[in-house]
Amino acid sequence: MILMKTALLAATLMAAFSVSAQEATIRKNLGERIPQLKKIDEVTKSPMPGLFEIRVNGTDIFYTDAEGNYLVQGNLIDTKQRRNLTEERIDKLTAINFESLPIKDAFTIVRGNGKRKLAVFEDPNCGYCKRFEHDLQKVDNVTIHMFLYPILSADSTEKSKHIWCAKDKAKSWQDWMVRDQLPKAASCDSAAIERNVELGRKYKITGTPTLVFVDGTRVPGAISTAQVEKHLTDAKN
Predict the structure, then answer these.
(1) Angstrom distance (rounded) from CA 161 to CA 170
(2) How far are the Cα atoms of 128, 165, 171 from residue 179, in angstroms, in the given order?
(3) 191 closest CA partner among 222, 164, 229
(4) Do 2-93 and 98-236 agree at the fold level?
(5) What are the domain boundaries of the chain?
(6) Helix (H, G, I), strand (E, B), or coil: what is residue 35?
(7) pTM flag (> 0.85)
(8) What is the structure's pLDDT at 16?
(9) What is the layout of strands, in order, in the sheet containing 40-45?
(10) Cα–chain-centroid distance for residue 71?
């Protein structure tokens, strides 16, 4: 029994050493051959034998062999289970914990009893966002945390600043998005908008509107009122 345990421990240590050596080789070779990959966040074995996952810049995923001789950019698909493993991995890495959202950098709209909660990232010059805002007016008993997320143009940033600095942010926002009334020029400390853009980049929010529900579900695009209601209901269960 002691010999078996010793042999098992030795095998475990050898396997760990092998993985560590492979990781060191991958980091060295890729770092020398592709300078942009000198700072690799993580090297792990992928579900595919002989293939290693390379994670850089927090959430960018590549694949390589055990010696870093080849680099693959693309999706790893599990054909048996019909799953996009790369997409699932990125979704996990970019998952947003609703409770950790910096609510101080958003303004809040409450309708009805406000029991249900939703966070939305929107650009004031986004046509899809305007369409979505019209539909969102029909959703009741909800608290909406609105994160101004100007990524389309310099004018988007200017409008966002005027809305953020308005005496009544929610009214200024809805006057513009729903009633096409330009926000009045205003100035104040608008650093929150810059923080929102950085936050969005961190979580790979590349389009607007993007919705985040309390269960961590993230939904891109101008979804319908019925879809919003469904997600709000599902997030509570």
Answers:
(1) 13
(2) 15, 19, 10
(3) 164
(4) no
(5) 2-93, 98-236
(6) helix
(7) no
(8) 46
(9) 40-45, 52-56, 60-64, 71-72
(10) 25
Please report the pLDDT score of residue 237 as a whole number.
66
CATH topology of domain 2-93: Nuclear Transport Factor 2; Chain: A, (3.10.450)
Nearest one of 67, 74, 75, 68 to 37, comparing CA atoms: 68
**How far apart (Å, rounded) are the C-alpha atoms in residues 135 and 227?**
11
State phi, psi for 222 to the nearest 5 degrees: -85, 85
Instruction: Report the distance separating Cα 116 and Cα 129, nearest Å.
Output: 21
Cα separation, 114 vs 17, in Å, equals: 55
Q: Just give the CATH number of 98-236.
A: 3.40.30.10
With H, G, I as helix, E, B as strand and everything else as coil, classify residue 89: helix
What's the pLDDT tens digit per position in 161-178?
Answer: 999 999 999 999 999 999
